[in-house]
Amino acid sequence: MVDYISYGRQSISVSDIDAVVQVLRSDFLTQGPAIPAFEKAVAGKTKVKYAVSVNSATSALHIACLALRVGHGDTVWTSPNTFVASANCARHCGASVDFVDIDPNTWCMSGKKLRQKLERHQASGMPLPKVVIPVHLSGQSCDMRVISDLGRKYGFRIIEDASHAIGGYYRNSPVGSCRYSDITVFSFHPVKIITTGEGGMALTNNRELAQCMTLLRSHGITHDPKQMNKKPEGPWYYEQLLLGFNYRMTDIQAALGLSQLGRLEEFVTRRNELAQIYDKALEKHSVQRQFIPEDNLSSRHLYVIRISAQNHFKIFKALRNKGIGVGLHYMPVHLQPYYRSLGYKDGNFTEAEAYSKEAISLPLYPDLTDGEQEHIITTLKKLI
Asked: C or N terminus of the chain, fewer CB within 10 Å?
C-alpha cells in the first residue's frame, strides 16, 4: 500500500541538520557569518557578482522592482502562467501590471508574443514596460536571449523569476548568471530545488543594484561609513538611507541553504532522471509534455503534463483519490479576482487559459522512490 505522495517535498540530510544545530549553538542566529557564506557560495555556483539573500522569493521580487525604480506611472509585464507574486511585486510598488501570453510548447513567456505586443504598443502610443519579468516555469528557462535583445531595443529592464530554476542552464550559462537580465530571483521554499525553509535570493552583476537591495532588505539602514551622509559619531552609529523592510534571512536558514547547495547537482540530476522515466512511460499516450531545447538544462522543479480539458477534472480528482498529490501550476494570474477587478477577463491570454484547463503537475522530488513513481505511472495510464 502506497501512502499519500505529495507533488513535492524537501530532502533533508543529517549534514543539513548538523549545519543548523551548529548555528543554534553559535553566537549568531541572524545577521551572522552564515549569510554571507551562503551568498558567496550561490554567487560562485551561478557565476554572478552579487547575491542578496532575503526571507522569500516574493521579497526578492519586491526589492528587485524597487531597485529598478519601479513606481507609480510605470508598467511591468510578466507571464500569466505563474504564482501571483510575479505580478504582485509590481503592484506593491504602485505600478500597473500587464501580461504576455505563453509559448504553446515551453509554457513560458513567448518571445514572439512579447515582440508582437511591444510592436503594437509602440505603434499605438500605448505605454511600454519599464520592467519585464519572465518566469522560468518548472525549472525551464525562458528564451532569455530573445527577451534580452528586445529589452535593448525597447528600453526595458529584466528580472528573471527563476524561483523554480536554480541548478538549471540556458545556452550553457547557469541560470542566475544574469547574462541576459539585470536581476535574477531564486526561491528556497521547501518544495523548490534546494531549501532554507522559507527564503529567497536576488542576484545581479550591477554593484549599485546589489547595494540598493541590501539596504532595502534591512530597513534601508547602513553601518558602512562609505555609504553614510556624514562621518560616524561612534561605533554605534548607523543611518537609514531608504525606506526599507525587514526582509532579512536568518543564519539558521542560511546554514541549511549552504548545506543543501552542496547537493544541488545531485538534486537536479535525480529530478531529471525521474522526469526521463515519466517521459518514456508516457511517450505513447495522449499527453503533452513541456518542450525543453537541447541546449538547456531544466532543474525540473515540476513535471507537468497536459491532457484533454474534457478529462482534466476527472483525472485530477481520481489521482488525488488514489493518494497521488497532483497539483495545478498555475491558475492564470489575470483571472484571479483581484486582477479581474483591474479589468482582466477570460479570453485575454488564451494560451495560458487553455494550459490551466489541461495541466497536471505529477509528483517530482529527489526522494520519490521507484515504487512510488511506478504507482503514479500505473494509475495514470489506467485513467488516460
From this structure: N
pLDDT, tens only, 117-127? 999 999 999 99
Instruction: Give the number of other CB atoms < 10 A from CB of residue 82.
Output: 26
pLDDT tens-digit series, residues 278-328: 999 999 999 999 999 999 999 999 999 999 999 999 999 999 999 999 999
Is residue 110 in some structural domain? yes
**Distance between first and last Cα of the chain:** 22
Does some domain include residue 8?
no
Omega of the bond prior to 330 within 30 degrees of 0, cis?
A: yes
- Cα–Cα distance for residue pair 291/107, rounded to 1 Å: 8
Question: Do residues 256 and 289 share a domain?
Answer: no
- Per residue in 45-101, pLDDT (tens digit) is 999 999 999 999 999 999 999 999 999 999 999 999 999 999 999 999 999 999 999
Say whether pTM exceeds 0.90.
yes
Mean pLDDT, to the nearest integer, of 148-170? 98
**DSSP track, 57-114:** HHHHHHHHHHHTT--TT-EEEE-SSS-THHHHHHHTTT-EEEE-PBPTTT-SBPHHHH
DSSP structure class, residue 226: G
Please list the alpha-helical segments (H only) found in 142-292.
Answer: 144-154, 207-216, 251-261, 264-282
Residues 245 and 279 in one domain: no
Asked if residue 371 and residue 335 are part of one domain, the reply reads: yes
Least Cα distance to 100 among 85, 121, 74, 124 occurs for 121
Do 374 and 247 sit in the same domain of this protein?
no
C-alpha cell recorded at residue 80: 500569466
Please tell me the distance from the alpha carbon of residue 178 to that of residue 354, in angstroms, as a whole number: 31
Residue 258 is part of which domain span?
Answer: 14-263
5 domain residue, yes or no: no
